[in-house]
């Protein structure tokens, strides 16, 4: 096992990730140059743009999928939760191939798998639908875990700002996928399949740009991998991230915000159509919910700044979700307004959640481990959301219990933020010999 490198270590120390970059997070100068630094940032943003459309394009056409395949409400809830279950199972394991093969290479493989999964999911036959959805979830799990750690490594002094940027891109593409899902399904005349399959294209483009990003780094990656394989001086035993209280607090914050988000992404169009809204308009409500998250995410990034203590911001972004759910219950005619308020909360919450993963860790490797933990447990919690919502709607004959559930989750998230937002680290500062 390689020795652990502190955030203040020298640039010559090997990167435990095996990516060819030191754990200090320096993106490098010299031969890479400013152009390569810009390419690396653009590549991260393109990957971010692929991490949600394959999921958010499903909700608006969920009724079409059910009518075509014969799946009931609970089964559709399981279909919506399947990628989240893949996140939960694979997230704690992603850092292992990341260390062995390099984070960049593993992300490239994931983009190829994502494109393949999207295509497979759209083939005729229920078996392909389930298999492709599982592959999509597995591929996105890799990006979910490794992108925050790559940002921590390459931009250690601007974690909140860069996180806000790639989260805004992720949110924007997610919103676009929701908004155009029904129009594409109608325009192609092939129901829901083309509205899902079209998102394989951006994944292919992102993979091509990511491959360009990797050019010129192979020699450094090989050198770092060789250094990682060499025996090191004995290092002090380090406490596992799973035994850190602050790690569990960040994980719970991630899980609560993800549960509320995926509940709405999966079921908001269905909730609105049950109230008499046509499917196209319901899809645009979901677009609105996610689109305003772009603005709120950037605003929250500015408010967070470079401060380590994020308790106030974490609580502030959580409460509007509860208010929006109350509005949907008591004034359903104002649904677009409540979608905007919910989107403001959701967009800010995901930025805080992802930023906390980098802010609460000292090194690239610690960030990858916390990212795996937070997204494994967090998405396991989130996976229960769509399933529980489908069951609640089936058993009660109403969507009211689902809206109440989301409000309760938001208030719990505000409470957890008061702990997760504290200026703490998952691991104490290492003492160099």
Automatic annotation (TrEMBL):
This is MFS transporter. The chain crosses the membrane at residues 37-55, 75-94, 106-123, 129-151, 163-186, 192-212, 245-264, 284-305, 312-331, 337-359, 371-393, 399-420. The keyword Nucleotidyltransferase does not apply. It comes from Microtetraspora glauca. It comes from the Bacteria. Residues 1-32 are annotated as: Disordered. Coiled coil: none annotated. Residues 1-12 have a biased composition (Polar residues). InterPro entries: MFS, MFS_Cyanate_Porter, MFS_trans_sf. Keywords: Membrane, Transmembrane, Transmembrane helix.
């Amino acid at each position: 096992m390689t020795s652990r490198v502190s955030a203040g270590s020298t640039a010559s120390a090997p990167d435990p990730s095996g990516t060819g970059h030191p754990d200090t997070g320096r993106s490098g100068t010299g031969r890479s140059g400013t152009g390569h630094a810009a390419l690396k940032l653009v590549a991260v943003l393109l990957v971010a743009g692929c991490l949600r459309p394959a999921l958010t394009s499903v909700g608006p056409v969920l009724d079409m999928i059910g009518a075509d395949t014969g799946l009931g409400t609970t089964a559709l809830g399981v279909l919506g939760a399947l990628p989240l279950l893949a996140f939960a199972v694979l997230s704690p394991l992603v850092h292992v191939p990341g260390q062995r093969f390099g984070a960049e290479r593993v992300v490239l493989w994931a983009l190829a798998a994502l494109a393949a999964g999207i295509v497979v999911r759209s083939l005729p036959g229920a078996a392909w639908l389930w298999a492709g959805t599982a592959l999509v979830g597995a591929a996105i799990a890799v990006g979910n875990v490794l992108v925050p750690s790559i940002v921590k490594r390459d931009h250690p002094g601007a974690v909140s700002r860069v996180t806000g940027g790639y989260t805004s891109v992720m949110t924007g593409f997610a919103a676009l996928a929701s908004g155009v899902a029904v129009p594409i399904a109608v325009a192609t005349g092939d129901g829901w399949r083309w509205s899902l399959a079209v998102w394989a294209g951006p994944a292919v483009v992102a993979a091509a740009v990511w491959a360009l990003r990797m050019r010129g780094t192979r020699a450094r990656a090989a050198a770092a991998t060789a250094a990682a394989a060499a025996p090191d001086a004995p290092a002090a035993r380090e406490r596992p991230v799973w035994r850190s209280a602050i790690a569990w607090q960040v994980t719970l914050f991630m899980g609560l915000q993800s549960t509320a988000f995926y509940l709405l992404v999966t079921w908001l169009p269905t909730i609105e159509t049950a109230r008499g809204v046509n499917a196209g308009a319901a899809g645009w409500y979901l677009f609105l919910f996610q689109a305003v998250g772009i603005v709120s995410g950037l605003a929250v990034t500015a408010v967070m700044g470079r401060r380590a203590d994020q308790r106030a911001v974490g609580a502030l972004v959580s409460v509007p979700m509860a208010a929006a759910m109350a509005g949907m219950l008591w004034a359903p005619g104002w649904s677009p307004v409540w979608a905007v308020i919910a989107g403001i909360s959701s967009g800010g919450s995901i930025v805080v959640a992802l930023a906390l993963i980098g802010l609460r860790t000292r090194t690239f490797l610690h960030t990858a481990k916390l990212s795996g933990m937070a997204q494994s447990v967090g998405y396991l919690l989130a996976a229960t959301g769509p399933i529980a919502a489908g069951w609640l709607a089936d058993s009660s004959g109403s969507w009211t219990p689902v809206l109440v559930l989301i409000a309760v989750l938001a208030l719990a998230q505000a409470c957890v933020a008061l702990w997760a937002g504290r200026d703490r680290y998952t691991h104490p500062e290492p003492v160099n010999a």
